[in-house]
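I am writing to request your help with a piece of structural work I have in hand. A protein sequence and the structure tokens that stand for its backbone fold form the material at issue. Please examine both parts with care and let me know of anything in them that strikes you as inconsistent. The record follows directly beneath this note.
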Amino acid sequence: MPFNLPIFLTWLRVALIPIFVAIFFLPPDLMSSRVANVTGATLFALAAVTDWLDGFLARRLGQTSAFGAFLDPVADKLIVAASLILLVELGRTEGWMAMIIIGREITISALREWMAEMGARKSVAVATIGKLKTAAQMFAILLLLYAAPIVPGFSTLMLGNIFMVVAVILTLWSMIYYLRMAAHEFSGKKIDV
């Protein structure tokens, strides 16, 4: 298993997950809910930045590896799933939206793995719709973690849930897109099930 700066940043993202979640369950005399919200949102934003940074550094420094390519999306999905479950637990978003997003992540990850085994991973490579889904999802989660008013008289939680609905729509749209791309690969090929 290689170890370099990009992989360190990815492992850091994984290591932040239990700390990030625990912050929201500390007793109020140790950390007020306002401080927990700001700290949690900051850690989530830091994780999002390291997600971009580790990929950038791996390419820039010539330190890409099969292990890094495996670990990076796993770390992303873990922190998103943990955040969504946390937000449902805190009553800040709806469980059905979290289930759709987490379910899609599992489905597309399995599809990519299967396509890689068939030698056709590029057919389900990240597309623009997937990047838009990720952006809407990250922004929604950040707003819902922060929770405090940003614009006077306008609920940050409501805005976060509007972006969450957008993320769910893009989630379903991107899942259909990837499934269609995979189906195109299957047509004309013998598939062993």
Summary: Residues 93-192 form one domain. The chain has two domains: 1-90, 93-192. The chain has a mean pLDDT of 89. The first helix runs from residue 5 to 23.
